[in-house]
Specification:
The protein is α/β, with parallel strands linked by helices. The chain is built from 15 helices and 29 strands. Strands 10-11-14-15-16-17-18-19 form an 8-stranded parallel beta barrel.
Length: about 625
């Protein structure tokens, strides 16, 4: 179907959803081809409607009604008639809902603000390259008993507000660990309302959350009481405030590329077909790989996505957005998001996956893919090329990467360290990583690809991978638990490739591993602090890098890069299982990163040459004359 004429005739720029006045409640919904539309009011989640009110078509495809009193505390849905078809739908703009999101809820959102919320502000950055992003799931973060979070709060928003959880050894877990690690931003896997977990019995099932249901309200399974529509809103705000108090920003993982349901989603029931792309035969296109794809290029879909992002940024003080399968979205939409978002928060982080999950109906030249990164300059993209060069092909378990013995990846790793990606317009557009929620964890990948190695060597590989991410030009990204060798074992020497609905025993962070692998975690912490202390690792343009970086000659398979700006920094990489001698440029060089430690204080001093241990990185800084 061609909706171009609908966009031309019925484009609407006003406010949609529920608006509360001093003595009134307004309702507005866009459904231009409906024969009629009714407002259904409910006293609870279970009743029949207590009142059915016909909505009035006011033009531009909008149906509206203003109730002459405030209706805080009531539930509501809309009913639409399309010929012989009658549908009931949750308001696509609903900002609160009851259990499992089946009915919208009318709430004064100011009543959900925690104490001091009016003073809450975003975490500011001068450049995306100054960020260190840490991806986690709300549930995984505290679900395991080893988190030492009170049992009632495990897997919930409220766990982030516990300041003093510690292992018996005294090592902090959860919020304390994040603060100690030194990351700048937490990326939360989806926290909007999603399908796949029964909110009335959340322990009975598990889901990452990439099954969108209601985009503008929080997921109830993360709340202490999913039946209380306002509590989940307050709890998410309290989570944001708790992280902000520690100087940590919050990035929201958003999934505007598809919905879990299609015809029976709130969008499909409100205005059939409009919100989704179709192929030439009228079948739903599946660029998401999940059964449908959102038609972001259509006027009112674009408006919806932009409105939604701005709502989360303003109402919840979200500091940034990670877009799932961003190449399903069109360039104009993501650029409009960036323009309007950065008017209110100039340092908002914006990044995404620069690919689709299937064949999308959107023409390639209009896609917000990493190949089109130059046309979306406000966005960063995941550098999967660098990821696979570091550890080996993500989708072929036995394949080796640079850290595990495939030295043919040397040039690709050099390119990664220098922020050189053919698709990027600047290093600020590059997200460097070697592990994320998808696919095997790095440790599990090494167990399968480097299975013949001793654990000590695999730990060296893991430390080297962390160094390659945190020493690279661009934006570093760490998966929760990666710093203490997170694993997702299934038993029988197998690991979980796709744990999106695997139980807590697979997905939860096992905080007791932090004691076992404390050296790895401390190494990561030291690298983060070192990166923060040296602007030369966070250059903002290719011109800066070109004038600051020099690749030096080094033994076969190894890497030597000299960075010179306000200081001289030498990065030495030896992935080989034997120690290698590197000749040093003239001068006295202080060691700051070794095979086992990273520090802003010198660890040793070298002149003329240095031996780099097997499977390790070294960073030295020249003492000023």
């Amino acid at each position: 179907m061609d909706f171009t004429e609908i966009d031309s005739k019925f484009r609407y720029s006003g406010e949609l959803g529920v608006t509360l006045g001093e003595r009134s409640t307004g309702f507005a919904v866009w459904a231009p081809e409906a024969d009629s539309a009714d407002l259904l009011l409910y006293r609870s989640q279970e009743d029949y409607p207590c009142e059915v009110i016909p909505l009035k078509h006011i033009g531009d495809g909008v149906w509206r009604y203003v109730y002459p009193m405030r209706l805080d505390g009531l539930y509501y849905n809309y009913r639409f008639t399309y010929g012989d078809e009658i549908t009931e739908a949750v308001d696509v703009y609903a900002k609160a809902a009851g259990t499992n999101g089946k009915r919208g809820y009318i709430a004064d959102l100011s009543d959900t603000d925690p104490d001091g919320w009016e003073n809450e502000d975003w975490v500011r950055l001068e450049s995306p390259s100054d960020a260190v992003i840490y991806e986690l799931s709300v549930r995984d973060f505290s679900a395991d008993p080893s988190s030492q979070i009170p049992s009632l709060l495990r897997g919930k928003f409220a766990a982030f507000c516990v300041k003093d959880s510690r292992l018996p050894s005294g090592e902090p877990t959860c919020l304390g660990h994040l603060k100690k690690l030194g990351i700048t931003h937490v990326q939360l896997q989806p926290v909007f309302d999603f399908e796949g977990v029964d909110e009335s019995d959340p322990k009975s099932s598990y889901n990452w959350g990439y099954n969108p249901s209601n985009f503008n309200l929080p997921e109830g399974s993360y709340s202490l009481d999913p039946a209380d529509p306002e509590l989940r809103i307050r709890e998410l705000k309290e989570l944001v405030a708790a992280l902000h108090r520690e100087g940590i920003g919050v990035v929201m993982d958003v999934v505007y590329n598809h919905t879990y349901l299609t015809e029976n989603s709130c969008f499909g029931l409100t205005y059939p077909k409009y919100y989704y792309r179709q192929d030439e035969a009228g079948r739903y296109s599946n660029g998401s790989g999940c059964g449908n794809e959102i038609a972001s290029e259509r006027a009112m879909v674009r408006k919806y996505i932009v409105d939604s992002v701005l709502f989360w940024a303003t109402e919840y003080k979200i500091d940034g957005f990670r877009f799932d399968l961003m190449a399903v979205l069109d360039i104009d939409t993501v650029n409009e998001i960036a323009e309007k978002l950065r008017e209110i928060n100039p340092s908002a982080l914006l990044y995404g996956e620069g690919w689709t999950g299937g064949c999308a109906a959107l023409p390639g030249e209009k896609s917000a893919s990493k190949q089109n990164a130059r046309y979306t300059p406000a966005y960063s993209y995941f550098n999967d090329n660098y990821r696979d060069a570091i550890k080996g092909d993500t989708f072929r378990d036995p394949d080796l990467g640079y850290i595990s013995g495939n030295y043919h990846f040397r040039q690709s790793v050099v390119n990664g360290l220098l922020g050189s990606a053919v698709w990027a317009g600047s290093p600020e557009q590059i997200i460097n990583y070697c592990e994320a929620h998808d696919n095997l964890t790095l440790w599990d990948k090494l167990l399968l690809s480097a299975g013949g190695c001793h654990d000590d060597d695999r730990k060296k590989m893991s430390r080297l991978a962390m160094a390659l991410v945190l020493l690279a030009q661009g934006v570093p990204f760490i998966h929760a638990g990666q710093e203490f060798l997170r694993s997702k074992p299934l038993g029988n020497s197998k690991s979980d490739h796709n744990s999106y609905r695997s139980p807590d025993i697979v997905n939860s962070l096992k905080w007791n591993m932090l004691d076992k692998n404390r050296c790895e975690a401390e190494y990561c912490r030291g690298l983060i602090a070192f990166r923060k202390a040296h602007p030369i690792l966070r250059l903002r343009s290719f011109w800066d890098i070109e004038h600051a970086a020099q690749v030096l000659s080094s033994p076969d398979g190894t890497i030597a890069i000299l960075l010179s700006q306000s200081e001289d920094m030498l990065i030495l990489i030896n992935p080989i299982t034997r120690a290698k001698m590197f000749m040093l440029p003239d001068g006295e060089w202080h060691l700051h990163v070794s095979d086992i430690a990273a520090s802003n204080e010198p660890l040793a001093t070298y002149c003329e040459g240095v031996v780099v241990p097997p499977i390790s990185a070294m960073v030295l800084i020249k003492k000023p004359v």
